[in-house]
Write a structure and sequence with these properties.
Elements: E1 2-3, E2 8-11, H1 18-26, E3 30-38, E4 44-50, E5 55-59, H2 69-84, H3 87-101, H4 104-118, H5 121-135, H6 138-151, H7 155-169, H8 172-189, H9 192-203, E6 209-215, E7 221-228, E8 233-238, H10 251-269, E9 274-278, H11 279-283, H12 289-293
Parallel strand pairs: 8-9
Antiparallel strand pairs: 1-2, 2-3, 3-4, 4-5, 6-7, 7-8
């Protein structure tokens, strides 16, 4: 008795020549093991071992393609990619989307759906955990940075995004929540240099806040690596992305350096104590924590 996990089959012998036809139709995609009959409908099925390693039962006359969920999903993704990459399809879908979104009843339906969805704590928690898991991977962060850089090379995108950001950041509550989510993401990374500095602080019994949010008066926000409340000092551990000796200049390094410049300027204007520690200095044998933070 054979089974595919859902139906049961019994082996059978088909008409002569049927096997040769099936082998020609396979065209090297797999190996024909034999024929069998499904008990529920009494019809003949091919039993095929495909090159992907999946054994499938396919009814005679149907396309000889692997029916495993993984292979089906992969084939459908490839078909969608071919279709979606055509300019005509994108223009067509853009027009349809604009027509649908302009209808008040559709807008109200979407508003109610998202209000109900994000109103549930489990949905917000699940989404937050997915983001943290995704951005904990350095390759994902690098890919996201590349996509962002490519997106903002388009002046139209920069303008639209700037207007949206200005509108959102007028609400300080929204910005504060965003910074709190950034704190969780940064903590999940568990940067090796930050963990080393944290261990040094623990050995000296110095109180600290790891990944401290700083919201400026203008609405711009930063997440700094450490805050030492005992001496009212923020500390940033600057890795290679912040530039320095023997670091090749690129768009990401330039953006990071500009962000650092704006942060330093803000801290000077508002008398906020900020200390930058190079990761290369932190790894050196002669590094002294007390000298670095000025105590």
């Amino acid at each position: 008795m054979l089974t595919d996990g859902k139906h049961k089959y019994v082996e059978c012998t088909p008409k002569s020549g049927t096997g040769n036809i099936a082998k020609e139709r396979l065209r090297g995609k797999g190996e024909l093991i034999g024929f069998c009959k499904r008990i529920t409908n009494n019809e003949i099925y091919y039993r095929i071992l495909f090159n992907c390693g999946h054994e499938c039962f396919i009814r005679t006359g149907k396309n000889l393609e692997c029916t495993n969920k993984e292979c089906l999903s992969k084939r459908m993704s490839e078909k969608r990619r071919v279709i979606f990459n055509t300019a005509e399809y994108r223009v067509k879908m853009s027009k349809i989307s604009k027509e649908v979104q302009s209808r008040p009843e559709v807008k109200e339906k979407h508003r109610k759906f998202f209000a109900e969805y994000w109103g549930k704590e489990e949905n917000r928690k699940a989404n937050s955990e997915k983001k943290i898991a995704y951005f904990s991977n350095p390759e994902n962060r690098r890919a996201q940075a590349q996509r962002t850089a490519k997106y903002f090379n388009d002046e139209t995108h920069r303008k639209n995004t700037s207007e949206t950001v200005k509108r959102l950041y007028k609400d300080r509550g929204y910005k504060q929540k965003y910074l709190e989510s950034r704190v969780k993401i940064e903590q999940a990374r568990r940067n090796a240099d930050e963990m080393s500095f944290m261990q040094m602080l623990n050995e000296l019994n110095i109180e600290y806040v790891w990944q401290a949010p700083l919201l400026t008066d203008s609405g711009k926000g930063y997440v700094l690596d450490f805050y030492l409340p005992c001496i009212n000092l923020y500390v940033n551990i600057d890795g290679s992305v912040h530039g320095g000796d023997n670091i090749k200049e690129n768009m990401i390094v330039s953006l990071t350096q500009e962000k650092d410049r704006q942060l330093d300027e803000y801290c000077r204007k508002h008398n906020i104590n900020l200390c930058h520690i190079k990761a290369s200095d932190l790894r050196s044998l002669g590094f002294n924590v007390k000298e670095a933070i000025g105590i």
